[in-house]
Amino acid sequence: MLSYFFVMFQHNHIFWVFTAAYLNVSPSLIYPGENFEESPLKRTFKSKVLARYPENIEWNPFDQDAVNMLCMPKGLSFRTQADQRDPQFHSFIITKEDGSRTYGFVHTFYEQVTSPQICSAMQTLYQMHNAEHTSTNPPSSSSSSSSSMDSLASSLDEADSPTSSSSSSSSRADGTYDSTRDTLYVSKALCLITPMPFMHACRRFLSQLHRAITVSSAPPLPLESYVYNILYEVPLPTSGRSLKFHGVYEPIVCQRPGPGELPLADFPLAEAFSLLGVENLVQVFTCTLLEMQILLYSQDYQRLMTVAESITTLLFPFQWQHVYVPILPASLLHFLDAPVPYLMGLQSKEGTDRSKLELPQEANLCFVDIDNHYIELPEDFPWFPNKSEFIQELREVLLSFGITDNTGAPPRTRSRPSSTPSTPGRERKTTAFRQLEDDGRNGNLAGEELAVLELLKGNATLERLQALTKRTGVTVARVEALRAGVKPQDTEGQGGRTAAEEDELRNARLNVQLREVFASRFATMFADYEAFVIQSAPDLESWLTNREQMHNFDKASFLSDQPEPYLPFLSHFIETQMFATFIDNKIMSQWEEKEALLRVFDARIDKARLYNVRAPSLRSSNYQRCSILKECVQAMEQRLMKIDHTAIHPHLLDMKIGQGKHEQGFFPKLQADVLNTGPTNNKWSHRTATAQRKKDRHKQQTEHLNLDNDLKEKYMQEARSLGKNLRQPKLSDLSPAVIAQTNWKFVEGLLKECRLKTKRMLVEKMGREAVELGHGEANITGLEENTLIASLCDLLERIWSHGLQVKQGKSALWSHLLHYQAREEKLEQQHSESPVSNVPERRKSDCCVAVPSLRVSLFQDMRHIQNMSEIKTDVGRARAWIRLSLEKKLLSQHLKQLLSRQALTKKLYKRYAFLRCEEEKEQFLYHLLSLNAVDYFCFTSVFTTIMIPYRVVIIPIKKLSNAMTTSNPWVCVSGELGDSGIMQIPKNVLEMTFDVQNLGKLTTVQLGHDNAGLLAKWLVDCVMVRNEITGHTYRFPCGRWLGKGVDDGSLERVLIGELVLPSGEEDSGRGCCTPPLQRSPSQTRRISLTSLSGRGSKPTSAQIQEAIGEAVNNIIKHFHKPEKERGSLTVLLCGENSLVAALEQFFHHGFKSARLFQKTVFVWDFVEKAVAYMESADQMGDLQETAEPLGMTCQSFCHYVNAINSTPRNIGKDGKFQLLVCLGARDRLLLQWLPLLVECPVILRMYEDTALLRDRTTVNALIGVLETLHDFPITLEASLVKGIDL
């Protein structure tokens, strides 16, 4: 069960070296960041392992550096009789680079210093300290550090460590230590190292071991017997069984869950919920799932460990894949600079204020102040699905165990101006200290018990009475228990169990039920995950070698199958490393044994499927409560109530008698010779060998894979670490070389992450089929795109935070940009010239020379962001700037310009920083440059309420008409988010700018005039509109006349837009760019349809029918997309290759459009003649004989045509036909109107015999195709139906 037992203490020899150095104090003995201004008793010193048993274990080597740091993370401390010296318990975890974990459990107590040399050395230090302070207060020896990590260390050590206020000697009042009057104590620790987290069992064993040296009488056996027993004679409980073994005074029980149960977790979840409150804990849990940086902050090491282990335990079936250091030793504070996701715990000192804590990076940080019950959340934080119902269920479980929810302070986000707790400093300090002092769960005696013990210690009469009762054989258990620092253990609960066992059983029940609620949520959300796993590799070897190129999970299909409210969270979560590892484990389970957590999770999903076969509720967002809360605890209860195995009792060992002599208050030196080797004839000792033989057999069975084991292991490690930066820091006393190596790993990891992220963004945006076929059909949803871009923003923040000299503001990137802006503005003033080169705007069409170029300017983009009052924080500004640069395809160029000022970069960053590694920096900028191959609207689509300046340029065809018109022109620009309203264009002006709330992607432009003056006719080639912030330029082709008596007599046209490719990208980017929007019909097509002498070949009947089918299919596909991803329906109804365009071709086929008296005949003329015939027939009474439905259809058709004709808009005959088709599609009337037109006698005069409209079979086929549109709610843009009330 146990790996090691050891004792830690400051060795006399080392301490003597320290004092002999006198003023030249050896820096190796003082912890980094130690404040020399503090009195010697408040300083901390380096600790050392005094003894460990056994010396080493082959399969689990002893990591002395890590153990040194984590047993006493702040170092060794001294106390006097006036200080608080209660024993403390805490646990720790050592995570190795391969991800395996070892647990440590530590019992720290204070032992009297008996060495006169150490006492006199401490007095000498005090004399030196007092001499310095009584002189003329010299300036502080520690100069202001340039490192943000140094400032963090100093801020942590500003406050004093807690001392007892109940009593203080006169010597302490004088600020001195007198070895003749004061008793000196030093901290000492007993520690157990185990492979599994048996926290309660280890805590009870260590507590009993310490109790054995605090009581006056010697324990029943020498201490070596108990240590030997737990090291060699107490086995690890087998899966699904319980085990009882014996401590010094009482038996101890531990158990392991069975193969179908949730894995072992012994840390009290109730404590984590009580410390943070349910809502706060769920929020921190969500941050952990999304792999943000989590920093826990508390005075108490055990609280840090409890909260960290609770959160990671609740992740089932997923596992935290990044840096995990629940207790960060003082010497490793620089590791908070890590530009990777992490979960770390930082010890606070009493009175340290959060506002004084300078952290290297906070853009993506979740800060958890455990002692003050409040958290700070990152910006743009998605909620956990069904969060309120989930919290309610957790509260009900806690309430069923009598625990009310401590709601804590409400969570704070980074946008809040202050992060200081609401309680005043002094009051909060007192409250937090009292809570810590009274908190029995942290190994402390409650306040009342402490008072009783103090009373007993100071009362000679009570002491004599107690001694008398002892001699008569009566024990006062309450007093003995108080002395030992534990509650009475002899009160029996149900079934002969002690109160402690009852408490343990209750905690175990609560743990299981809380974990089941969390596991049930994941089982509901991922019930069908297997259907989306892509298993394309034929064998393990090919999968491992091609892991990086493979897509293992169909994310788009999975998200499309989820309820809408879940999407913000799930779209982020499926991008995490923990989800990727979960899917990798699922795929590898085809060829090797299933990973334990996956096996349990899959079994639960299979069981759920048996009970409800693909329940329809899986698609709904209705909350499903956990239904197995009572059943889930039964197996565990049975194990604890009926013990399966009892270990060998501790017994006398073959050792020299008298060496471990009992001396109250002192832990003896144990006999190493008997503790370093275990028994040879113990049946438990063969377990390890048996397990090893099983492993060897399994290895032989896998040899059929024909893959060399070393090579396979290499591939496995590479595949599993894909996307990770650094698994775990090595906890050792770090030399500059080791720190440099660690930072180099970070640089390599950041570059790799950048490469994978940009590649993923490109592939997802363009689509796999698009890349193969050479076109850019986008198959990524806006939600996924937004998630990937948010992830890129996070990566850039982490890169800019790496190796900072001094932290200034929450966002390192925005801080760098501000420094650059200030420096360039200073240079601009000095040289009186702009530092920004007038690079022509790259978003300029080669054909639109009339649109003035937009200057590429890093400054201008920054000013746009700074002028956005909606953004309140630096983190928000940095993200907005990244989105704007990405949308403008200038991100790589802007960052290259920012980093070109090397003097500034050197001033802001340390030598090891990513931004100062030239080769990696160049590769990083190259990866970002690749994103220019696709179009993003990540700025336009997110900041929807900002005011944006637009520029409109009207380009007439000068060869065929006047450049200007004497009439009064107007324009109205519409987009996905709204329209600008009608704006008059000043006379003799073809260009204007206007400010309006963000219109989104532009869809249509309405252009018209009032036909006033002599030169009212106007032939317009196109209209250009540009967003002056993003630089997106849209071209709205027209190619038609506006004027009475020319073309179709239209004074107003609705034009459909197309996004103009940036110049220079037309050729290079055609095969890999996202597709252009459809646009308004071109001039050539219009003329060919409406004019007898039209140029170009007319489409055949087969081509026309194919065009109609394609147009209808596009509309159906539009409605099958998620609502937020659909784009503009107007384009599909009225643009090129649209429904209107296809039906125009159908109606023009065989149309007799000869010029009668030099006047062109339009399809609308046929429609009007048909209406006239129907109305006259109605008046004559002919229609009354027809069937009732047909008569109603005639009335609706005439009503719609007359309403369009009576509109005040002058939209021309083609515009009216377009409007009729759109209204007919919207109101599902098109297929009723077609038979009317076919039956109307007018068709004989205006259509040839071969016309499609006169072919009954073709018309019936067309009606069948149009009928498919009836299932969808078609809504028309306001620009199309303006002035029509139908």
UniProtKB/TrEMBL annotation:
Sequence ranges assigned to domain RUN in this UniProt record: 783-944, 1130-1281
Record domain PLAT: where: 948-1056
Entries under InterPro entries matching the protein: cDENN_dom (IPR001194), dDENN_dom (IPR005112), DEN5A/B (IPR047278), DENN_C (IPR043153), PLAT/LH2_dom (IPR001024), PLAT/LH2_dom_sf (IPR036392), PLAT_RAB6IP1 (IPR047277), Run_dom (IPR004012)
Stretches assigned to the UDENN domain: 29-593
Stretches with biased composition (Basic and acidic residues): 425-440
Gene3D superfamilies attached to this UniProt entry: 1.20.58.900, 3.30.450.200, 3.40.50.11500, PLAT/LH2 domain (2.60.60.20)
Annotated segments matching region Disordered: 132-178, 405-440, 678-702
Biased composition (Polar residues): 678-691
Main subcellular localisation: membrane
PANTHER family from the UniProt entry: DENN DOMAIN-CONTAINING PROTEIN 5B, PINSTRIPE, ISOFORM A
Family assignment from sequence similarity: Belongs to the RAB6IP1 family.
Cited PROSITE patterns: DENN (PS50211), PLAT (PS50095), RUN (PS50826)
Protein name: DENN/MADD domain containing 5B
GO terms, molecular function: guanyl-nucleotide exchange factor activity; small GTPase binding
One cellular component (GO) term of this entry: membrane
Biological source species: Acanthochromis polyacanthus
Organismal lineage: Eukaryota, Metazoa, Chordata, Craniata, Vertebrata
Keywords, alphabetical: Guanine-nucleotide releasing factor, Membrane, Repeat
Biased composition (Low complexity): 140-178, 410-424
Pfam families named in the record: dDENN, DENN, PLAT, RUN, uDENN
Subcellular location as annotated: Membrane
